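Collaborator request log, item 7. Partner lab (contact: R.S.) asked for a structural prediction of Extracellular small neutral protease to inform their binding assays.
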Amino acid sequence: MVLRRRLLSLALIAAALVGVQLASAGVAQAAVRVLYYDASQAQEFVAVVRQGAQNWNSRVTNVRLEPVPAGRTPNIRVYADNGWPRTYTTSLGNGYWYMGREAVNDGYYQPRISTHEFGHILGLPDRRTGLCADLMSGSSAPVSCTNAFPNSTEAATVNNRFRSVSRSVPAQTYVWQPAA
Ligand SMILES: [Zn+2]
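Returned to partner:
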């Protein structure tokens, strides 16, 4: 009991320190925008959806992707079907996307697909450069590409998009399907 109380007080001290750091960071930059995603309908891809969210969280500071808490409306819904992976955005940070088995069965690296589709929700368009180093090159990079992280330019673009609280972005649809 004593140990437990001591641990609790240590935890409170740690939380207070983190709070101070967050508060001072907030002076220099805008508050982190949290976007909630619902992966409950992503079927066999729930873990890979989470991984895609974490990949973004490890590279950007102005926005965070978190699993939706019970009773809250998600910003992002993720589904799975037999088509191409694709994203339908309604506005910056909002929309839904599909983990499509067409690309999975072709052998595309699943975490790259999930991180890429979240990238559309975060305001990035497709850029079919063919380069594996570009997350948003999507299906234009070789099937063998296992890079599942945004490059520094892509991460900086997302940070810029979420720097201000409200920014108008038109609704879009993006499809992973390779060029014929
Ligand atoms: Zn795409």
